[in-house]
Structures are given as C-alpha cells and as structure tokens.
Amino acid sequence: MGFKSMAAPMYSKKLRRLIRPQIRLNPLSLLHLATEKAPLRRIQPPSSSSSSSSPHRLTTEIADILRTSDDDTWRANEHLNQLLFSNFPPLSSHHFLQIARQLGNSTSALKFFHHLRASSPPPEPTSLSSTFQAVFELASREPDSANRVLDLLSSSKEFSVPLTISSAITLIRGLGRAKMADEAMRVYNELDSDARDTCVRNAIVGSLMGCSRIRDALQVLDEMLQPDSASSPNGITADIVFAGLLRKEADGRSVGDEEIVQLFWKFGERGVFPDSVVITQIITMLCSHGKSDKGWKVLHAVMKSDVPVEAPPCNALLTWLARGGEVEKMNLLMKEMKEKGITPNAVTFGIVINSLCKTSRLDQALAVLEKIKQGDDGVMVKPDVVIYNTVINGLCKAGRQDEGLALMERMESEGQCVPNTVTYNCLIDGFCKAGELDKAQELFVSMSEKGFNRIFELSML
Asked: I need a surface site. Which of 113, 292, 321, 395 has the fewest CB within 10 A?
C-alpha cells in the first residue's frame, strides 16, 4: 500500500512527518548539482564604513582621508582603497562626484581622478566622467578659471573621458563669463546632437547673449523653436533670450521691437512665456516707443494663458495708459485684473489715483483711497505716503487745501503712515497760493519741529 492510501489517524503527526515521501531527483540533475560552479561574488569584508553606513558618511570619510594624506600614499592605503573599490554595493558615479567636490580645489580633485583611473580595474567610465565633472566645477570657481578649464578640457580629451551634461554646461557658462564666445561654441559644437538638450542650449544662448553675439544666439534658438526639435525652449530660455535682447548696453544689438514681439509670439505658441520681470520690461519698451497697443496685446496674451500673472506687468501698462489719458482702457484693465484674480498692489492704486487727480476727479480719487483702506472687493492695500501725497497735492492744486490738511491729520491719527517733507511742501504751497499765510507759517513751524528739511525759506512766506 502506498503512502497516500494510509489512513491518517493510524499515525502520530511526528511519524507522518518522518514517512512523508521525498522529492525524487533525476540522476542527471544530481550530476549537474555536483559539477556546477558556484557563481563568483564580491564578499564585503568587515569595515567600519560598510554598507550599513549612510552614503553621506561614507563619501565624507573617503574625502577626509584624501584631504589629510599625501596623494603619493593613496595607492598604498589599504583602508582607503577598500572603501573606494571593495564596497558592496559598489560606489556609484554620484558618490565619486560627491567625494571629488569635497576636496575643495581642482588640483586635488584631478589627483583623485588619476588615482581612480590608475586602479585595476578602474571604475566605470561614467564614474570617471562624474569625477572629472567635479574637477571642472571646482576649476570654474578658481582664479583664471577660463584658461584653467580649457586646459582641463584638453586633458579630458587626452584621457578619453566623455563630458557629462553638467560638465558641458559648466564649461560653456564659464567661457561665456570670460567673453570667450568662440571657445564656448567649440565646446557646444563638439557635443553629440543627443547631448545638446534644452539645458545645454540655454547655456550657450546665455553665453552668446552675454558676449553680444545676438545673431548666433538667435540661430541656436531657431533650432529649438523648430516643430520637430527634441530640445524645446522653456521658461528659462525665454528669460535668457528676452533679458539679452532688452539689455540696452549690449554691443552690436541688431534686433528691433518688431522682431522681439515676433519672438514673443513664437514662444507663446508653445505655451512658454518669460517671467513677470521680463514681461514688464517688454511692455515698458513697447509703450515707451509709442506702441502701447502692442503692449496691450502682449499682456493679454499672457493673461489668456495658464501662466500666473502678477501686478507689475499690469502696472507697466496702466502707467502708459494713464500718460495717454486712456481712462476707459485703464478701467477695463482693472476689471480684467479682478476677473483673472490678479491682485493689485499699492503701485497699481497709486497709478489709478494719480491719474484721477491729474484729470481733476478728486472725489473719485478719495473714494478709491477709502476703498483700498477698507478692503472693499476683497482687496486691502495699506496706502503709502506716495499715495497720500498724490491726493493731498491734487486737493491743494484744486484750492481744497483744508481737505488736504485734514487728510494729513487723519493719516497720522489712523497710523497709516507718517507724512514727509513732500507732504508738508504740498500743503504749505497750497495755503500760500490761497493767501492763507498764517496756516502756511504754522505748518512750516510744525515741519521744522518734527525735524523735516526746510525746503521753503521764511522770506517766501
């Protein structure tokens, strides 16, 4: 009777375990087990800095040994080489990069690279490239960095060490700062096309812009803007390009307003826009050249996108609309800002109030001032002394100097802000022109007692 037909109750649990049938092995399987070699694997020897230590502690310990010992002793230092080459898992390229960075100068980092390269077997090529990346980074912060990195570039070619993306960016930026545009372009052109990603292209565009090689920079940009480009521009690209084009002191600038606007539209078609500062500069440039209509289109293109819009670009356009007396457009823009959730600031309301005062709509200016103080429409802005001075000056010029004085007194009592010399000068001038010299004299004395500079002479009163 086989084991399977035995009744279970006839045996104890212990006996059933003893008589359980075992797996039968084929004789060929036994032969295979007997003749198969055990796979080779590196055994991690006992070490105070084994894999149980954090990567940061390990790289720090190695860097400390390298810094505190002469490079002639590194090869014979068993503990150092055990940490470098006998760890399990082995050190990665990132670890070698961190170690070299901690050495503090390019000379020491280069010696470390040679130590790795001379080991047997040497680390993976990626690890050598990462180590050399640290050499480039350290050299770029040292005196005469441009010539130093060029020498190191020649050495990397001699040792057949491929550049990492970060190394290429470091080289291009460093050479650009040294105004070595040709050398920066040579580094860029020697890279494989796959290596010329958006970050690398941004670096070369920035370097060329900084060297006033505007047309060369725009040629690289044109490649990025192609529909089939694998290195599409991003917000950083836009900031670099427009900041370079708008820089007035750039020698050899040969790009007009229309070309800048066209570039803006090309970026916009890809949903890419520069930051708020650059957009403000573009609008200011266009408006200052009598093209506020184009400034209006630029701002609204950004407002229609998913890019968050801040107050400064709106303020730039409001300023020029106010100068042109385009009140309806100002009101429309303020309405659109509210609809888009763009929060106005003190500058915004200062522009609006100044425009109202200059067009003799003082009651509206006073209403806006009270509105922002009370936080109507969910927007509360603390008026600054410039806003108060604008209203007070408008009141005084309109012969309503008593209201201006009352506004200054309310400004002080409410603790909104402190009057300054301009505040007093507006009021003194207003009372003088109204023939109320006694009040002007009182203000002059009060002004002096509070330590403000005397702009008016007593003889003028």
From this structure: 292
Percent of the chain with pLDDT over 70: 85
Over 90: is that where the pLDDT of 18 sits?
A: no
**Rounded Cα distance, 100 and 217, in Å:** 33
Computed over every residue of the chain, the mean pLDDT equals 85
Q: N- to C-terminal Cα distance for the chain?
A: 133
Per-residue pLDDT at 253 exceeds 70: no
pLDDT at 415: 79
* pLDDT above 90 as % of the chain: 70
- Record the pTM: 0.74
Residues 223, 189 contacting (CB under 8 angstroms): no
